[in-house]
Design goal:
The chain is mainly α and 138 residues long. The protein is 42% helix and 7% strand. The protein has five helices and four strands. The protein is globular. The protein starts with 6 loop residues before the first strand and ends with a helix.
Amino acid sequence: MNFDTFHAQPSKEWGKLVKSWATGVNQFSPDSPVPPRPDTLQELVEICTDFGIELKIPDRISEQNIDWHVARSDTLSIRLPPKELVDEFEQLLRTEDYFLPGCYLTAFGLANLQIADPSDRVDFQACRIGDYSIGMCV
């Protein structure tokens, strides 16, 4: 499936970097300082390069600054995806398999879900969006 989304590979290293920012502890080397939280996409690319993380940033992302969303454990945060991306992805699901992030391939041997019925793929999309919208990323 060809869908223009943000990707960071390897996903384990990207996760460690995000965990470092979230916890204030360097997940690569606990005795080292936490990598700085970048303010711009260029800074993000540079920091990721230092940790061997390759980014794919969609062309549609024109804003160069980063909008950080830090959830609180005592507050329900509901994050909504952009309407145009939901609609575009749903159209793709009517003709193509549901692709999954790279960590699913590593953990479960699945690069995409081969769900025969397009409406079942769209239902699965709804489940993932619902989970993502309230997930605490823990």
